[in-house]
Amino acid sequence: MFSINLYPEYDAHHALFRALCIRERFQRLPVPLYRIIDYYFLNPFDLHSIRMPGGKHKKLSKEFEHLRPYKRAVEPASLAIHMWQFQQAALHILARRSFVSTAALSNEVVNFSDEAVPSEFQRELAVELKTKGDVLDFLGEFVSRYPLSGPDGLKDRSGLLDYRYDVKSNATAA
Question: Partner of 99 at 20 to 30 A CA spacing, among 17, 18, 79, 91?
C-alpha cells in the first residue's frame, strides 16, 4: 500500500531541502537548536508564540500568516516532536553526502560542510531564501541572545522542546 504525504512537516525530502536552506545561514548548531530553527523556518507564522521582548517576531509572524494551514490538529510542541524523525532522516542523508559532519552528528551537533549544492537545487534554494530569508535572519538574532537550555533559554522561550532536565550552563547557543 502506498501513502501520499501532503504535509511538509512529515516529509523527509522537504526536511532535507529545509536543512540546505538553514545551511546558508548557520554553520554549526546543536541538534536541539537545529530542530527549533527548522520548525520556525517551516512555520514562520508561529513566530508570535516565542516569548521575548519586542515585536519583530510578531510582525514577521503576521507577514507569513498566509502560509498557515487551514486546520492544524497538532499543537506546536507535539508537531516539533513528530517532525524529529524526518529531520533526523534528512540529517543522516546529508551526512552520507558529506553536507554534514558524521562525527559531529554522532555528538548531537549539526556541522554543515562547504560541499557544493547540486546546481538543480540552487535555483529553488535561492527562491526559498529570498522568500524566507528574514525568518533565518531573525532566528540568527534570537539564538545569539539567549542560551539554548534551562529556564529562559531557547527551548523554554519557544515552548517546542523540554528544558526541565537540561544540565545547567551559562553558554550561549550560537
Answer: 79
